Amino acid sequence: MAASVEAAGAGNSAPGAGDSAPGGGSAAVRLPRSPPLKVLAEQLRRDAEGGPGAWRLSRAATGRGPLELVTVWMQGTVVAAGGGEARLRDPSGAFSVRGLERVPRGRPCLVPGKYVMVMGVVQVCRPEPCLQAVKMTDLSDNPIHESMWELEVEDLHRNIP
């Protein structure tokens, strides 16, 4: 199955989102052509500008232009979950995810204490970031994911022109 089918109604404003599928049914949201940007909750709280469908991550402090935030990749520990929503915590702080009832998850991972990856569309950045989920994966089986996450994000942002 193609990786472009993830969550119906994820609020993605990418061209083609919400188009009808062949045969008249409604299509799942199509992911943008660019890969999701790895970010920490604090980066969204501190540096995000704009609004839904037009978020940018300011990099003025480093003398570089902003990055478009179409889809983001975040990782964190599940703090609470229920009703299609979850609250997670990464090394920099808390963030929320909604729309989880519509995303593929593989093994059950909406359990407090599980370490997960969430790909999603930014809805709100302050006071606490909130994503509309597109994909969620349990990463709990390998502790290296959690221990390296902050360094991965830092390395990525250091090397994006």
TrEMBL record:
Keywords, ordered alphabetically: DNA replication, DNA-binding, Nucleus
Subcellular location: Nucleus
MF (Gene Ontology): DNA binding
Biological process according to GO: DNA repair; DNA replication; maintenance of rDNA; negative regulation of double-strand break repair via homologous recombination; regulation of sister chromatid segregation
Principal cellular location given in the protein's record: nucleus
Keyword DNA-binding: yes
Record's compositionally biased regions (Low complexity): 7-20
Disordered: annotated span: 1-32
Domain of life: Eukaryota
GO cellular component entries: cytosol; nuclear speck
Family: Belongs to the RMI2 family.
Record note on quaternary structure: Component of the RMI complex, containing at least TOP3A, RMI1 and RMI2. The RMI complex interacts with BLM.
Protein's job: Essential component of the RMI complex, a complex that plays an important role in the processing of homologous recombination intermediates. It is required to regulate sister chromatid segregation and to limit DNA crossover. Essential for the stability, localization, and function of BLM, TOP3A, and complexes containing BLM. In the RMI complex, it is required to target BLM to chromatin and stress-induced nuclear foci and mitotic phosphorylation of BLM.
Protein name in the entry: RecQ-mediated genome instability protein 2
Species assigned in the record: Zalophus californianus (California sealion)
